[in-house]
Amino acid sequence: MTDAGDVTDWRREFAEEARSERPDLARLCLLVGAVADPAVTQADLDAAEIELDRLAGLLPYGARGGADAWVTALAELLGRREGFLGVPADYQRLESSLLHEVLRRRRGLPILLSVVWIEVARRAGAPVYGLGLPGHFVVGFGDPGDLHLADPFAGGRPMTAADAELLVAGATGEALDPSMLRPATPAAIVLRILNNIRAWASARPERSDVALWAVELSLLLPSHPARLRYERAELLVQRGDFLTGAAEMEAYATVMDAVEPSAAETIRRKAKAARALLN
Asked: Nearest-CA neighbor of 108 among 29, 163, 14, 173?
């Protein structure tokens, strides 16, 4: 594929990659960017992959000293030499959630900067994983039970177990739960990225187009919240596709009948109101 703006093909590739036996995290994130930006071509995606390979080539393969040595090496390369880090203003930019833009700008949300770390480290042979702590995504090295963590948003600042506990307490007001320390799968990472994009768009009603494609990509993942089907229906109605939106609301209401009959009835009333907008 070489032509820009072929969204149908990008989405098909995204669906195929997401449901493959071993989904490629970088490829999935780059395909999100291709759907987001009609100007993106296959050459742009190839250039992003080449940049990840280049960065990995600047690291020693199989760094001696274990997990801490990897944290130090990645922080030196990506945080200090290459300038990958985040600032508060990054939360206001859609580009901060698109991998090809993050590679270009050296700025992004914590989860996208973590993707850069994961993909560069993986290519260099590091035992790396992503950790989706509440409110802040970080990376870990070595045995997940040992908690050798780094914060790419802070340029690779090493994190202790106590730091992780404080971060979780600040985000949730609760103690760190062991379930929060499970390495995130590629699908879970991409779903969280798409959730961030949806949150960005929800604060900007004029960008319902962004919210819609983010929901639709989320629905292509093998595991996703069922409620996204209803969110898509609402967005379709909001964007003037009343008939399709109403039909999808009714389909979702049928699913909800067995779980929350009262909620299903409310959704059917909204579907009826959407159809009335056609008159």
From this structure: 29
Burial string for 158-187 (b: 16+ CB within 10 Å, else e) reads ebeeeebeebbeeeeeeebeeebbeebbbb
Q: Across the chain, how many H-helices and E-strands are there? A: 12, 4
Angle between helix 208-220 and 25-36 (nearest 10): 150
The pLDDT confidence band at residue 64, using thresholds 50, 70 and 90, is low
Residue 87 is given by DSSP the state -
Could you please report the per-residue DSSP string of 224-261? --TTHHHHHHHHHHHTT-HHHHHHHHHHHHHHHTTT-H
For the chain, give the number of residues. 279
Can you tell me the mean pLDDT for 38-62? 92
Question: Are the C-beta atoms of 183 and 140 separated by less than 8 Å?
Answer: yes
Paired with 136 in beta bridges are 133
- pLDDT band at 221, cuts 50/70/90? very high
Strand, coil or helix: what is 97? helix
> What contacts 133, CB < 8 A, 6 or more positions away?
164, 167, 168, 171, 180
- What lies within 8 Å, CB to CB, of 279 at 6+ separation is none
